[in-house]
Design brief:
- By secondary structure, the protein is an alpha/beta fold.
- Helices cover 42% and strands 20% of the residues.
- A hairpin with a 2-residue loop joins β5 (118-121) and β6.
């Protein structure tokens, strides 16, 4: 069983000008695709300090296995989620956002403009997703089947000995 947190980063949602649709959509995808539960969904404005504070809380206090963020990964002046996330990471996992951008590019060329990052803080995997509900769900769905193995590795469960020499050991 895994625990997860969803953080929506949006000035408009934080000001009450728009309803958060991405956070609830991601919650549903996670609950359908991973054994476990989403223990919290939060919303913050595009402010690096607030984003970092929430990420640290999820990783250090709640010790969730997975954190997904939605929003703030574009090229706009207020899109700061990747930088805020990078500031709290211990290690990066570049293959996750690469796979999401590749999968998204099969649908729309604009997917390559996402600057989202993924990485590890302590034993928590953090993944940045686009802000649109469709882009967020498509991106997470593209990598979710592989994330379970990564989460097992973070728990220290390691590779099964019989897979050590196969391609499945990646």
């Amino acid at each position: 069983m895994y625990t997860a947190a969803v953080l929506t980063v949006s000035d408009r949602c934080a000001r009450g000008e728009s309803a958060d649709q991405s956070g609830p959509a991601l919650r549903a995808v996670i609950q359908a695709g991973l054994p476990g539960e989403v223990v919290c969904c939060d919303l913050v404005a595009d402010e690096p300090d607030r984003i970092q504070e929430k990420l640290r809380h999820y990783c250090d206090q709640l010790r969730v296995n997975l954190v997904v963020t939605t929003g703030g990964t574009g090229m706009g002046p207020r899109d700061v989620t990747p930088e805020a996330t990078a500031a709290v990471l211990d290690r990066v996992v570049p293959g996750i956002p690469e796979a999401m951008r590749w999968a998204g590019a099969q649908i729309t060329g604009r997917a390559i403009l996402s600057r989202g990052v993924a990485g590890i803080r302590a034993r928590t995997l953090i993944v940045n997703l686009p802000g649109s509900p469709r882009g967020a769900v498509q991106s997470l769905s593209a990598v979710l089947p592989s994330l379970a193995h990564g989460l097992e590795m973070l728990r220290g469960q390691g590779h099964p000995a019989e897979q050590a020499d196969s391609n499945e050991a990646y």
